[in-house]
Design brief:
This protein has a domain at 59-188: Tetracycline Repressor, domain 2, CATH 1.10.357.10. The protein has helices at 2-31, 38-44, 49-52, 59-77, 83-94, 98-110, 119-142, 152-172, 178-188. It has 199 residues and is mainly alpha-helical. The protein has nine helices and no strands. The chain starts with a helix and ends in an 11-residue tail after the last helix.
């Protein structure tokens, strides 16, 4: 009976944690993370601040988990697409959720500090994103869609860097079409793009 009670308690804890993340995603997307307090999130899920921090050790850890959850939901919604298509779709979607873009932009910069709670998350995220994007680029090169004289890892790194830089510029000037700029970069690397059409 004790074991069953423990399992039930664990399942309830996981469900509550997921509820908190879902609520935080919605609230932060709408208001931004600097305008979102732990108290506001706690009240939205029927908890005290202390109760919410039972599931997350700090506000920073909570927000890092919000970004992880966002990535999980994005991947699940586009599981049959190529990594580059997923990236472009995600950038288009980001134009509708400025609060999450601001959270990602500010947190990724702060997380360059090795002591930041989100440091490991961002380091792993960028490494995996580079690897997946490079593999997608290699597949496009094999299919004759992208030039073979462009190193796949280099192009993947440049595409990710462009994405992050565009997000910063877009937060300052929402008229910028982020997805169009990424597509323009890939067009430059296309098999029929500038500097030859080597296949």
């Amino acid at each position: 009976m004790v074991l069953m009670a423990q399992r039930g308690s664990y399942a309830k804890g996981v469900a509550k944690r997921e509820e908190i993340l879902a609520t935080a995603l919605e609230v932060i997307a709408r208001h931004g993370y600097r305008r979102t307090s732990v108290r506001e999130l706690a009240e939205a899920v029927g908890l005290s601040q202390a109760g919410l921090l039972h599931y997350f050790s700090s506000k920073e850890e909570l927000f890092a988990e919000v970004l992880r959850k966002r990535d999980e939901l994005s991947a699940a919604a586009t599981k049959d697409a190529t990594p580059l298509a997923i990236l472009i779709d995600a950038v288009r979607h980001n134009a509708e959720v400025a609060g999450l873009v601001r959270l990602h932009t500010q947190f990724s910069a702060e997380a360059t500090d090795e002591l930041h709670p989100a440091h490991a998350f961002f380091a792993q995220r960028y490494a995996e994103l580079r690897e997946r994007s490079a593999e997608a680029i290699r597949q496009m090169q094999d299919a004759g869609e992208l030039r073979r004289d462009v190193d796949a890892v280099t192009l993947a790194t440049m595409t990710i860097a462009l994405t992050d830089g565009l997000q910063t510029q877009w937060l300052l000037d929402p008229s910028i079409d982020m997805a169009a700029h990424i597509e323009a970069l890939l067009a430059l690397a296309s098999a029929g793009g500038p500097a030859g059409s080597e296949r």
